[in-house]
């Protein structure tokens, strides 16, 4: 039996079953082939091709500028590097909010051209028609509530969301609505842990938290943050597993020194 036939691919159904069996779901972002290969080999259940690519890959201040074509490109790169994980791709700002037809068109392009296994979109009741249209076409949808970075100019900051009762109640109602509409899972970003626990217990689809406490069914982090590539970005919810910024700049400095002093390449490294 080949190695490939032994690899059990993660599906949307796998994630739902993990919630029922109380096995935690792991998710990280990736935006390119090489990273996706490493993240997949590390054993994560799902990979998010996030519109956070606008920040970490393109250097934008918000996620708003990234286009659907750019997101499709990043998704294609990731899918080529993955053997096991479920690949979920963000639909970027402006590609699904205005009308359900446009939303479906964007989702179809992401699946056909990008090769994604599922798509993720931000918001609740406001985008219900778009979600319905996409789900009815047989495309798996992951919801996203709490801090929704595409609405950053509406919120005005990246602070914790749903601290007030009214916003918390709307979030619970939206979570239930997303489940009813057929979303297979839900990201909860930067909300009080106690609210995330309540949401997780009140719906039968898995919740994946980022800055939403330990009671979600799973967790997601931005890969570049988790391995310490972004110097100075250390929000409370982030656990940094490496300090790659220091490691990589150190290695580059050593390479520069070795070339300048004619130490590299040496005899063994020459033909």
Report a brief summary of the structure.
The protein is of the alpha/beta class. It contains 12 helices and 8 strands.
List keywords for this structure.
single chain, TIM Barrel, 2 domains, 8-stranded parallel barrel, 12 helices, 8 strands, 13% strand
Can you give a write-up of this model?
This protein is an alpha/beta fold and 271 residues long. It has 2 domains: 238 residues, TIM Barrel (Alpha-Beta Barrel); 29 residues, no CATH class. The protein contains 12 helices and 8 strands. Strands 1-2-3-4-5-6-7-8 form an 8-stranded parallel beta barrel, surrounded by 7 helices. The protein is globular and about 65 Å long.
CATH third-tier fold name of the largest domain? TIM Barrel
Helical residue percent band: 40-55%
| Shape annotation | globular
Structural class: alpha/beta
Question: Any chance you could write out the topology, listing elements then pairs?
Answer:
Blueprint: H1 3-6, H2 12-20, E1 25-29, H3 33-41, E2 46-49, H4 53-56, H5 68-80, E3 86-90, H6 100-112, E4 118-120, H7 128-136, E5 141-146, H8 152-155, H9 165-181, E6 185-189, H10 193-202, E7 207-210, E8 218-221, H11 223-226, H12 244-260
Parallel strand pairs: 1-2, 1-8, 2-3, 3-4, 4-5, 5-6, 6-7, 7-8
Helix pairs in contact: 3-5, 6-7, 9-10
């Amino acid at each position: 039996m080949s190695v490939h036939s032994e690899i059990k691919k993660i599906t949307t159904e796998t994630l739902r079953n993990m919630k029922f069996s109380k096995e935690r779901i792991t998710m990280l972002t990736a935006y390119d082939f090489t990273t996706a290969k490493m993240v997949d080999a590390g054993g994560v259940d799902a990979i998010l091709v996030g519109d956070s690519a606008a920040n970490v890959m393109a250097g934008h201040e918000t996620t708003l500028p990234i286009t659907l074509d750019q997101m499709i490109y990043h998704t294609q790169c990731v899918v080529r590097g993955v053997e096991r994980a479920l690949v979920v791709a963000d639909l970027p700002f402006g590609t699904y909010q205005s009308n359900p037809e446009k939303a479906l068109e964007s989702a179809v392009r992401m699946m056909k051209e990008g090769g994604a296994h599922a798509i993720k979109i931000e918001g609740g009741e406001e985008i219900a028609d778009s979600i319905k249209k996409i789900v009815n076409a047989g495309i798996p949808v992951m919801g996203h509530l709490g801090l929704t970075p595409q609405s950053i100019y509406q919120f005005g900051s990246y602070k914790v969301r749903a601290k007030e009762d009214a916003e918390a109640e709307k979030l619970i109602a939206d979570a239930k609505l997303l489940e009813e509409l057929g979303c297979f899972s839900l990201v909860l970003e930067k909300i009080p842990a106690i609210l995330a626990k309540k949401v997780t217990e009140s719906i039968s689809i898995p919740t994946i938290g980022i800055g939403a406490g330990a009671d979600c069914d799973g967790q997601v982090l931005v890969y570049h943050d988790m391995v310490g590539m972004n110097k100075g970005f250390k929000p409370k919810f982030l656990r940094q597993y490496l300090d790659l910024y220091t490691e990589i700049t150190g290695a580059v400095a050593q390479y520069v020194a070795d070339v300048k002093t004619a130490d590299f390449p040496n005899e063994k490294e020459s033909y």
